[in-house]
Amino acid sequence: MEAIEDQQPEDDYTLLHWMLTVKDKDGIPLERNYIASELFDHLNGAQETVAVLLTYVVYHLSKYPHWQARIREELQALPVQEDGFPSFADLQAAPLFDAFIREVHRVCPGASGRQERCIPDRGRKFSGIFVPEGIRASASRIALHRKFPSPNTFDPSRWLNLGTEQLQQMERSFAPFGYGARSCMGKAFATMEIKLLTSALHLQYSTRVDPDSATTADSMRQTGTMDSLPRGLRCDLILSPLSHGKAPSQV
Question: Bridge-partner residues for 241, per DSSP?
Answer without folding.
Answer: 205
